[in-house]
Design brief:
This protein has a domain at 197-344: Butyryl-CoA Dehydrogenase, subunit A, domain 3. With 349 residues, it is of the alpha+beta class. The chain starts with 6 loop residues before the first helix and ends in a 5-residue tail after the last helix. Helices cover 56% and strands 11% of the residues. α7 runs antiparallel to α10 (314-326). The chain has a seven-stranded mixed beta sheet with strand order 5-6-2-1-3-4-7. A hairpin with a 2-residue loop joins β3 (146-153) and β4 (156-163). 50% of the residues are buried.
């Protein structure tokens, strides 16, 4: 793996950062958050995401043989850094990957051009994908008109779409839309997905969530460093206190550790065998899930009392971190799955 970003990757990340800054969640006021999740606002923001090309990054052969896992992670990180409510993880990353795995290329193209909006279906506890079942949840559902469920038959997976008509659910994360799945008849989408192709799609989904956690951490650290550099107590900047410096230095180490794991997992999605790609993705999700909580809590400590008020953005970050941590399994779940993978195949590294 080349750990240096190419000029094209840096340009894509910078462009995504510019768009993310324009759609950022900056005011956690309830009315402002309701507006940020409104259909008109999300649709306008989604248009920007489509123009950036994020939903098309996982279109087969879109970037040639080298794939696009790293590029996808870079973009997701930038939108998470600003706590953007636009549903990039679910609709722009996970859904196109699932459709591509099922060889439903006509639907992949429709998603890429913005004419089709699908939300992935998770189990009620959000720790796995789900089929058409009572209690299932449509994740990142803002603006979506269809739900994309996953039916299992042993190692074979099939995608099923059905209208998204359920009731909105109250989410811990104030920037994410969750909708209850209305059980009904669905239509199979594309072909059946074998275990190897499913493992690769699952790896991309885990990596996308880990990249979202990375972006949240980076935003929290950036804001905390800026705050302690300007906040004065006893005639000096708070950031000059050694205890504060150590707190944020430790947070920086956690952020960079997460970035290394996420970039490796994003590269592995396209370059390593499916079992190894899934192992890398689980490792990235485990590290980012644990580190995300620590880094966001460190930023709360740096801000002090203002960070635990409704009017400050810190609680929005913490909420999003806790939801991301649960999605497709927290660090404990990932550790257990990593152990299972290693026991099944000792050659997996």
């Amino acid at each position: 793996m080349n750990v240096t970003l190419t000029p094209e990757q840096r340009l894509l990340s910078e462009t995504a950062a510019q768009i993310a800054d324009k759609v950022a969640t900056v005011n956690p006021n309830e009315a402002e958050l309701d507006l940020a999740l409104s259909a008109d606002v999300i649709d306008e923001q989604w248009t920007r995401v489509v123009e950036l090309g994020l939903p098309s990054l996982r279109v087969p052969d879109a970037l040639g043989p080298d794939g696009s896992g790293v590029e996808t992670a870079l973009c997701i990180e930038q939108f998470a850094r600003t706590l953007a409510a636009v549903p990039v993880v679910g609709q722009a990353a996970i859904v196109p990957e699932l459709l591509a795995a099922a060889n439903a290329l006509d639907l992949v193209d429709a998603v890429a051009e913005g004419s089709l909006r699908l939300a992935p279906v998770f189990a009620a506890d959000l720790q796995d994908f789900a089929g058409i079942e009572s209690g299932a949840v449509c994740f990142d559902a803002s603006g979506a008109t269809e739900a994309l469920a996953v039916e299992r038959d042993g190692d074979i997976h099939r995608l099923v779409s059905l209208p998204l008509t359920g009731q909105p659910l109250q989410a811990l994360d104030l920037t994410t839309s969750l909708v209850e799945l209305s059980v009904g008849d669905g239509v199979q989408v594309g072909e059946s997905i074998d275990r190897e192709r499913w493992d690769r799609a699952h790896a991309l989904a885990l990596t996308a969530i880990a990249a979202d956690l990375l972006g949240i951490m980076q935003g929290a650290l950036d804001d905390a460093v800026a705050y302690v550099g300007g906040r004065v107590q006893f005639g000096v900047a708070v950031g000059s206190f050694q205890a504060v410096q150590h707190l944020l230095a430790d947070a920086l180490v956690r952020v960079e550790g997460s970035r290394s794991c996420v970039w490796h997992a994003a590269w592995a999605v396209d370059q390593l065998p499916p079992s190894q790609a899934l192992l890398a993705a689980r490792s990235a999700k485990a590290y980012a899930a644990a580190a995300g909580r620590d880094v966001v809590e460190a930023s709360v400590q740096a801000f002090g009392g203002i960070a635990i008020t409704w009017g400050h953005v810190s609680h929005v970050r913490l909420r999003r971190t806790l939801l991301d941590r649960r999605l497709l399994g927290d660090e404990i779940t990932q550790y257990e799955e990593i152990a299972r993978l290693r026991l099944e195949d000792p050659e997996v590294t």
